[in-house]
Amino acid sequence: MSVTIKQVAERAGVSVATASRALSGGRGVREANREAVLRAADELDYKPNAVAAALRSRTTRTIGMVVPVISNPFFSTLVEAVEREAELGERGLLLATSHYDPEAEARRLRTLLDRQVDALIVIPCHQERSREAFEAAARRVPAVQLDLSVDGTTASWVGVDNGAGILHLVDHLVERGARSLAYIGSEPTDSSARDRLDGYRRAAARCPGPADRVLLGDFSLEWGRGAARRLLDEGAPLPDGVVCGNDTIALGVLRELSAGGVRVPADVMVGGFDDIPFAALAEPALTTVRQPQDRLAAEAMRTVTDMLEGGAEPNRRVAVVPELVPRASTAR
Description:
Elements: H1 5-12, H2 16-24, H3 31-43, H4 50-57, E1 62-67, H5 73-88, E2 92-97, H6 102-114, E3 119-122, H7 131-138, E4 143-146, E5 157-160, H8 162-175, E6 181-186, H9 191-203, E7 213-217, H10 221-233, E8 241-244, H11 247-259, E9 269-274, E10 287-290, H12 293-308, E11 317-320, E12 323-325
Parallel strand pairs: 1-2, 1-3, 3-4, 4-5, 5-11, 6-7, 6-8, 8-9, 9-10
Antiparallel strand pairs: 10-12
Helix pairs in contact: 1-2, 1-3, 2-3, 5-12, 8-9, 10-11
């Protein structure tokens, strides 16, 4: 049978109310009584009832988080960064995945709300179809969008300036001698895919030659390989540089170009976006645009905390400028 707070109070020789205040760090407890209660709790191996404490305080000290997938290394490392930040604030993290399905995403949000989370950090899977469920959840608890966002909402958002990142990469390729470019990305169903595609179309004017080849699929290794195969099979001259919508696509491009006998970077330079852990381990090591995940996680948790404490504006938007990380895949 578990030890009760009444038994702790009896062992310490104080009232139950005093024991409760001492254990919760409340005021109005004499130091001698506080020490006696803490000593009794330790001797009896007392474990407070988290559910009961949550009911009394109307807070569970948990944050719910919904991400599209965990298999994408960018999302998995971002979750770890958010969890570290939550721990610093003595909060737990409950995680759910939508698998890029807005209906599943809506169910996950409802489940987290049923678990009485204090707030939500959401990476919405669709820029339009995620809106209704996200806004419904945001009416119940503080909610922040991280990395991706939904159209038409004033909810707070933390992410990177995707257009600036693509511009950095295009300028880098042109400075390294690229006179023609191609873009391989995802269909613009989420905000990052859209913003990176739009960013490339704007930045393409910086290229002195043709840069109008755009191949769109999804953010996967398989699509990167398939798109690179299409470039190889077209029969037209290969571009000097390939701008990829994320690192996973870029890794697929590297693999398929190598299989086709194309030398990177001597024949074609390749750049990605995100700086996932595998980018530096690729052969050749991948030039990419780094998203500062620790800073993104810290900004998201700061925004959530401020909203819980009543100090954040309802539509805080934090756009972090990403950093170009040159590596061997563009080192002509």
